[in-house]
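Good morning,

Both structures are done.
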Amino acid sequence: MKPLKNDTYLRALMRQPTDYTPVWMMRQAGRYLPEYKATRAEAGDFMSLCRNAELACEVTLQPLRRFPLDAAILFSDILTIPDAMGLGLYFETGEGPRFERPVTCAADVKRIGIPDPEGELGYVMNAVRTIRRELQGEVPLIGFSGSPWTLATYMVEGGSSKAFTKIKKMMYADPQTLHLLLDKLADSVISYLNAQVAAGAQSLMIFDTWGGVLTPRDYNDFSLQYMAKIVDGLTRETDGRRVPVTLFTKNGGQWLEAIAATGCDAVGLDWTINIADAKRRVGDKVALQGNMDPSMLYASPERIEQEVATILDGFGHGPGHVFNLGHGIHLDVPPEHAGAFIESVHRLSRPYHAG
């Protein structure tokens, strides 16, 4: 593998000195880009795009051709693991993901096996290998997974949810069954992410999209402890350098200290927390990733620049900040606004890293 030409993102995650604050965007390979829409149309549907290594590589690289991003992220979906567990994933137009066979009881959980990352999930590893080769060392490649709790919400609810009544019913009425499912998912995520590292991923991210719907105690018992188990089980070195791990719980700002104590290298922040407060609370224990409201990209480039300046000022001087949106980029954002955002981060952040 070629040596990295730009390792700013990896160094920032390790809180090492950098010349500027690195930036990438959640969902940077996606629906806001016309070239993505064309490639998806060629693939036929979303999962066909994920399963085709060449096309998944193409859409991963598309934003890098437009913008000087500091990292690439594997193009895939968080629901690949439940799909490989045989739950029958499909996508309903306008409805999002659905499962034909949701998990309803202990017998369902016992039937589920831990997927082989080079078997049922081999198409993901093929995509990682293809992307890593085609990147030619330009920037690092991020691998990722959903968190056990977040994956379980889809598996038990049968798809997306607003109230999470089915999984919360299981959590309170039959907690043993849910713990059995979460433990199986944690083991699956460990093997899945370690296989991504073996295939070429240089950094890992765990998306806990729905951890924020829990009470503080339930967050610890049903989400955080399983992410901590994953962090403990991950390969943390490859090619002679550390593989940094970022944990991101949407609406998880109240639990920052607990997330930072898992042994992860970085904590992702959504836009509902002030980054200056976050830095005060975790000190130099972990790097911070975030945290501009994705909707800010609807604003004028001048307003976007102001917001970037505010967030950089909030984090202040020194290493340990990866600039990102507080969640995924919206599908109707003008690509040139994303470009203005990235340019502003690179230009305005340099004084914070000088001397």
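Second structure follows.
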Amino acid sequence: MKIIKPNLLKKGDTIGILAPSGAMEDDTNLIRATKFFENRGYGIKLSENIYSKNRYLAGSDEERLNALHNMFLDKSVNAIICLRGGYGAIRLINKIDYNIIRQNPKIFCGYSDITALNAMFLKQAGLVTYSGPMILSDFGEEKLSEYTINKFFETVCDNKFDYKGTFWGGNLSTLVSLCGQDFIPDFKFTLFLEDLNEPAYKIDKMVTQLFNIEKLRNNTEAIAIGDFLDCESIDYIFEELGLPIIKNFPASHSNKKATIPYGLEII
């Protein structure tokens, strides 16, 4: 499948804020993030389900699916940043019309639960997305991370990234939730991983589950270890794989994170 890289972000573009996963409890950070982007010269468009709530989800599956499709179909929207993670993306992956994604390529950014969409958009539509900051946890924070903000704009506006190669992966527990799907790229990549609040044995179990997949094992050229916040020391889990390792890779649930081109070769 042809790999599609979206156009870079430029001043005056409109950023869509999409809620494909968890519900928003409070809109304080959303309001702050909206002002942040508007002050930088960007327009903002909210998905129609942004205030919806169905248990722990930002609306029903149908609401969230329609919001996702509509954001990609909307010609006035140049980039999409997800509101938050949580849970819900894997409920949509077998319902998404990937032709809509393929025919309307645009910047798409998120991490954590959004890893499921990053992976499936690349595999099923060929769209390069970005594993990076989101609205509530990053752009809407009262005290912004200068590193996170700078790296976001460097990557999506100037096509700059500090590492060479092709990176694929994301949140470990979300990747494991995709097992059983056709989600692994057909090309070689450096597998980057991050997670939080997991005991070492569960991280071991999840990494082992991924590497029991022959295609992932064959296509992984190296491991980039991001932050495993509030976790025990786990380097040995990756060292046992016998692959080259990049440590301190800037993928994280903390407020300091890079914006990582997902599936694009950086030379």
